[in-house]
Design brief:
By secondary structure, the chain is mostly beta strands. 11% of the residues lie in helices and 36% in strands. The chain is built from three helices and eight strands. About 11% of the residues have low confidence.
């Protein structure tokens, strides 16, 4: 039987961000379908299986899925089909105890226009890597790597 990991979510008018808490995840599989079905599966460090499926509030662009695996979590950026703010993450109004708002990434609808795209998405100046392959991903520092630098 698989476990459900904690999922944090935030949105912009054009994307949804999902941060899935599975430390040291292996065999990570993420799938996004145009009708809004998002599926995730991974194996934890002790071999325990993690998985879930979400029926998102509205349709998405399946080719607009980006994923980054870190030591503590997996960050997914899903592009919305229509540029609009969703009332909630899921079609269903039912509460899911493992899904929570990611207040660190959250931006109010009124405040989105104040952010430049570079402030919101570009992590180059923060980590000094110079790579620009994180198009559409928010930068979160890898704390384990930062700890090893000092």
């Amino acid at each position: 039987m698989s476990r459900q990991p904690e999922v944090l979510w935030a949105q912009r008018s054009d994307r949804v961000y999902l941060t899935i808490s599975v430390p040291d995840a292996k065999d990570v599989k993420v799938k996004a379908e145009a009708n809004g079905l998002f599926s995730f599966s991974a194996v934890g460090p002790q071999g325990e299986a993690f998985s879930f499926s979400l029926e998102l509030f509205d349709s998405i662009q399946s080719e607009g899925l980006k994923m980054k695996t870190g030591l503590r979590n997996i960050i997914c950026s899903v592009q919305k089909e229509k540029k609009e703010w969703w009332k909630r993450l899921l079609k269903s109004e039912a509460k899911h105890p493992y899904i929570k708002v990611d207040w660190n990434k959250w931006v109010d609808e009124d405040d989105e226009s104040e952010l430049s795209s570079e402030e919101e998405y570009d992590g180059d100046e923060k980590d000094g890597s110079g790579d620009d392959d994180d198009d559409g991903m928010l930068y979160l520092p890898d704390l384990e790597k930062a700890r090893n630098k000092y």
